[in-house]
Amino acid sequence: MGMAKLGNQLYTGERSFDFVGRRKRSYLVSGVVFLLSLVLLVVPGLTFGIEFEGGSEFRVSGGAAAGELVAADAVQEVVPGTAPQVTTVGQGDVRVQTVELDTAQLDEVRASLAQAYDVPVSDVTSTSIGPSWGANVTRQALTALVVFFAIVSLVMAVYFRALAMAGAAMLALVHDLVISAGIYALVGFEVTPATVIGFLTILGYSLYDTVVVFDKARENTDAAFRDRDRTFAEAANLAINQTVVRSVNTTVVAILPVAAILFIGDFLLGAGTLRDISLALFVGTIVGAASSVFIATPLLVDLRRRERGVRALDAEVAERRAAAPEPVGAGPASGAAGAGGTA
């Protein structure tokens, strides 16, 4: 069966997956992954670049052939007790990161690296970032994240005229952010300003996917309140089924180029901006698409299930079905959430 035919059947209700009815399983899986991500954020924790922590960085052009241990020995000759981080960048450059050094030490380390790699001193570049600048970058990154959440919450509440939708969307965003950061800690990639940009981008993508589902959920639930033919959970579950194929297609199309960038940035170019941002995009796009289906809309149902209007709707629908039971598999509630249906 093609995706187009499946999507049409899901949209019309001919077939249905009970996402909302099985939300406890989704919560369990997501909760376990979420907790594991929190643990990874503590042990081993995120590896922050010198842009956040401050320090000095050296780049040796064409030194990769000599290996990375040479750089560590060269730095320790000048600054004993230092444990530099040495990585290969691109096809032949070596990047060395240390604690912040003064001007004299920078010159001595440059000369030592040039001698160790047998290259001119001009082929060894150095930069330093003070701790105050790094703290400023960290503060600005956190400020950007807080402002993003605040504006998104306000826009969601105004657009959907429902605090429950804004709350469910924010919880899904936190879920996506923590899991993405946890995988980043697991892999051990450095967190740089490019990484922060990647995280903000995936939050935007996750929110976009959630808004699409919520918009359909609002349309279906408004119809349910008007026609009194579906429960609130069934209407929300129908919205997920009507948009799930589109979400899958969009996600696949989005991650293919990101995967190519990740491969090029990691295996061909080495550590750098491409690798930093592409991993965040790759992981976040997948997690964001999954959360819009398995987390955000089921959370919306749970947040609104105790409202008087929702309870009255569910009770009226149940009373009508009890008074005039339909054959198994018939009616608009067939396979819908809360009705015991299956895919």
Attribute tags:
4-stranded antiparallel β-sheet, 11 helices, 343 residues, single chain, alpha+beta, two-stranded parallel sheet, disordered C terminus, elongated, 6 strands, 2 domains, Multidrug efflux transporter AcrB transmembrane fold
Q: Topology, please?
A:
Layout: H1 3-12, H2 23-45, E1 47-48, H3 50-53, E2 55-60, H4 69-78, E3 85-89, E4 93-98, H5 103-117, E5 124-129, H6 131-160, H7 163-187, E6 190-191, H8 193-227, H9 232-268, H10 273-304, H11 308-323
User: What portion of residues belong to β-strands?
Assistant: 5-15%
- The number of helical segments is 11
Approximately how much helix is present in the residues? 55-70%
Unreliable residue runs: 330-343
Sheet with the most strands, sense and barrel status: 4 strands, antiparallel
Order of helices and strands: HHEHEHEEHEHHEHHHH
- What name does the CATH topology of the largest domain carry? Multidrug efflux transporter AcrB transmembrane fold
Globally, the shape reads: elongated
Spatially, the strands of the biggest sheet line up as: 3-4-2-5
CATH level 1 class label of the largest domain: Mainly Alpha
Report how far the terminal alpha carbons are from each other.
Answer: 14 Å
Please give the radius of gyration in angstroms.
26 Å
The total beta strand count reads: 6
The assigned structural class equals alpha+beta
CATH 2nd-level architecture of the largest domain: Up-down Bundle
Going by CATH, the homologous superfamily of the largest domain would be Multidrug efflux transporter AcrB transmembrane domain
Number of domains: 2
